[in-house]
Amino acid sequence: MKSELTPENKGEMRGHMHPISSLIREANKIFSDMGFAFASGPLVESEWYNFDSLNVPKDHPARDMQDTFFMKDEPETVLRTHTSPVQVRYMEEQLKKGIQPPYRVIVPGKVFRNEATDMTHEAEFFQIEGLAVGEDITLAHLKGTLERFFKELFKGVNVEVRFRPSFFPFTEPSVEVDMRLMGETAPEKLRGKWIEMMGAGMVHPNVIKNAGLDPQKYRGFAFGMGLDRLAIVRWAIDDIRLMHSADLRFINQF
Amino acid sequence: MKVSKLWLDKFFDAPLPNAEALSDALTFHAFEIDGVDKVGEDEVLDVKITANRGHDCLSHRGIAKELSAILKLPFTHDPFVASKTVASLAAGQQGDVREATVSVALDTPLCKRYIAANIKGVKVGPSPKWLQERLEAIGQRPINNVVDATNFVMFNTGQPLHAFDAGKLTSVDGKYSIEVRAAKNGEKMLALDGKEYELKDSMLVIADANEVIGLAGVKGGMPSGITTDTVDIIVESANFDGVTTRKTAAALKLRTDASSRFEQVISPEMCAHGISGMIELMQRPDMNMGGEVVSVVDIYPQPQQQTYVSVTVEQVNKILGTKLTGADIADVFQRLGFPYKEQSDIFEVQPPAERLDLTIPEDLVEEVGRIIGYDKIAPVELPAFATQPEINAGFYTAEKVREELMSQGYSEVVTSVFAETGERTVLNKVDGVKPYLRTSLISGLNDAVKKNIPNKDLLGIKEIKLFEIGTVWKDGKEMMMVGIVTEKQAAVEEPLEMHAPSAAPTQYENLPLSETQQYKPFSKYPYIVRDVAVWVPNDTQANEVEDSIQKEAGELCKKISLFDRFQKADKTSLAFRLIFQSFDKTLEDSEANTAMEKVYVALKAKGFEIR
């Protein structure tokens, strides 16, 4: 292993960026070129935005204590369990500004699940939400958008995207999205293997309605992808807990 | 849910394709498959039923119906079609209507339907081999012919059943009265699992004239359980409220195959299929059960109404991005067995009673999409967006600050938002530690420095310098802060907002990305540091010396770095630091020493003087 500190470059070294920050920077660039704006929302969120507005019924098991962090002495307030609440928040904000669809937006940010941590599970992790709303958005656009995203992220490697049926209360139809890298230039470890990347679908009409839009007129696609998982796939990271470890043995590799 | 291939075969005229083919069919058109196991002659698929299909697919019949649609195989033996009406079951064997021997009172809207069949003179014994095998294949323990029959019907149709030993129930003049009601607070029931449960008034129970005999939709009571002495039985095929059942099962930590079906909400129409399936099964000669159906009571105050959902060809294509024809869509509905009317490109579909998930046009679009196959949807790029996406001020600022700090040698960390103290608290932290939301980045940053200092040599850096851009909750607000810390300077922070550009930016800057190809795992074991300094002629390259060291130091040497260099007249001193570390164990000093001895020998051989 060659020394990093040769006499020639003994000066101040550039620090290292957290891999999640690098991914967000890259995702923003790719999606920005496709017309997607960057949006954010609060991490402490109302049950309305986190669940009800997204068509998750009051008695849905996902709202049980074991999955969601609830805030003490703050009724109907949770640590957001996904970046999807920003779907409705963003649409509302645009409408307030008098801006009608089409909308395209990505929402990278931190989310929370009340679960025990291990090599593949963390109580706090990162997601990126994508939303495109307009009069003529289709499931085919979702496929095309994700294919382009992965193609650019994996630098021109042949990328295939496939959908499998799934269920989420906030999309109908709902799909599970798998990705496969093909060809000589694909990283050997990933080559030819289908990898489960995210949940997605066509925005449920109730969500469009809850945001204040007419679901007869507007439709959209939405997706929510784990950024930690994407980083793990991209760089072959072996433990999700490294993300919050603040360990330079990890961070200085990026 | 565990699904047996041999069981599924019975719904069709010919055996189905192999389990792998079934697994693929379900994966791409219906449900994920968690695994396929060989059990004796049988193959068992573990099917992950999505939450919207718990209504109809927690059963072999439901999965078989899906396969029929996906694989275009005629669904020739549908137990729902074969079901006898309750009225005909109640008519008795000679067709004469008898006086009911059971009365049922529903004192709650949470039970939509209750069918009770009183069957006399049964013979309790072991089930036939085929039935035992089917149950065992899906992980169930055969008990006796009566209980096995109720279980078989549940796993076959999705309708849970329960059999009571009528001989243990209170009867007046040979008549049983069954009541479905809320439990009384503190009321107790000894359940079939041998445990006594204390009930609350939020729970639903089945009671006879005297006492609680079952926990509705969850578990039956021990005293009225079926034993080898049982002669007369009452079979319950009922419909209980989903939320109530789920909450009861959760509160008592008693989740059962029955409760996990009711909690998904099932159609009360299925009660009839359940009781019909039970009576048909018990009359099979190989069940050796005998028994005479003396009365069947069906209390169904508000029968489920037929619903209608319409979708147009245009809607299907505008949502999926396809060019399907009316004939393509009609084919899907036929394969799914949905009655429909088609008129000028509008399909009016009558969802089957058990398909409670189908309520809006988009639900039908999903049916079309998945049955046709999402692989038929060709990717299409979005059209160009008319306007430049707006620039997010917060992200722009964070990126600017991130670049500035990195250029000053700071590396970025992300630490937990959970803290020992704070203004706002999480109610239900699973581990109970750090239940507060942090008010500051400072303690996380100070901890991070401490944690990294011991690894400085390994990292080959002179000073630990860290920053974090993260959320804090302070003074009633959620805000983004930026904090920095170094080994020498305790952490400081300020609101990220303070670094916002004075004029609104018009575009994001093109900033560098990580160029790393692959992460390399690091050893969790401690490392050993050894320094070596040598005098070399002034024209000797440091790289050359380093190469010699590397060759001798061996695999345990993880890093070599030049940390000092000075010249004295005709010679130069080069000082190298070597890091020894193993992936498998804590290294002994002697192991590093052995490697260093080899290094010394090699350097001396080159004519260098060790300082």
Architecture overview:
The complex is a heterodimer of chains A (254) and B (611). Chain A is an alpha+beta fold and 254 residues long. Chain A has helices at residues 19-33, 47-50, 85-96, 139-153, 205-210, 227-235, 248-251; strands at residues 37-38, 44-46, 77-79, 103-112, 124-134, 158-168, 171-182, 195-203, 219-226. In chain A, strand 6 and strand 7 (171-182) form a beta hairpin. In chain A, helix 1 packs across helix 6 (227-235). Chain B is of the alpha+beta class. Chain B has 5 domains: 2-71, 2-Layer Sandwich (Phenylalanyl-tRNA Synthetase, Chain B, domain 1), CATH 3.30.56; 86-299, Phenylalanyl-tRNA Synthetase, Chain B, domain 3 (3-Layer(bba) Sandwich), CATH 3.50.40.10; 309-374, Phenylalanyl-tRNA Synthetase, Chain B, domain 1 (2-Layer Sandwich); 393-499, Bira Bifunctional Protein, Domain 2 (BirA Bifunctional Protein, domain 2); 528-610, 2-Layer Sandwich (Alpha-Beta Plaits), CATH 3.30.70.380. In chain B, the strands form 8 sheets. In chain B, strands 4, 7, 8, 11, 12 and 13 form a 6-stranded mixed β-sheet that branches. Mean pLDDT of chain B is 94; it is low at 93-97. Chains A and B meet through helix 1, strand 1, helix 4, strand 6 and strand 7 of A and helix 2, helix 8, helix 11, helix 13 and helix 14 of B.
> How many domains of chain B?
5
Q: What does the average pLDDT of chain A come to?
A: 92
Largest interface: A-B, 98 and 112 residues
Question: Which percent bin holds the helix content of chain B?
Answer: 25-40%
Supply the CATH superfamily name of chain A: Bira Bifunctional Protein, Domain 2
The H-level CATH homologous superfamily of the largest domain in chain B, spelled out, is: Phenylalanyl-trna Synthetase, Chain B, domain 3
Please tell me the total number of domains of chain A: 1
Query: Number of DSSP strands of chain A?
Result: 9
* Rg of Cα set of chain A: 20 Å
Main location (chain A): cytoplasm
Subcellular location (chain A): Cytoplasm
Domain Aminoacyl-transfer RNA synthetases class-II family profile (chain A): 21-233
Keywords (chain A): Aminoacyl-tRNA synthetase, ATP-binding, Cytoplasm, Ligase, Magnesium, Metal-binding, Nucleotide-binding, Protein biosynthesis
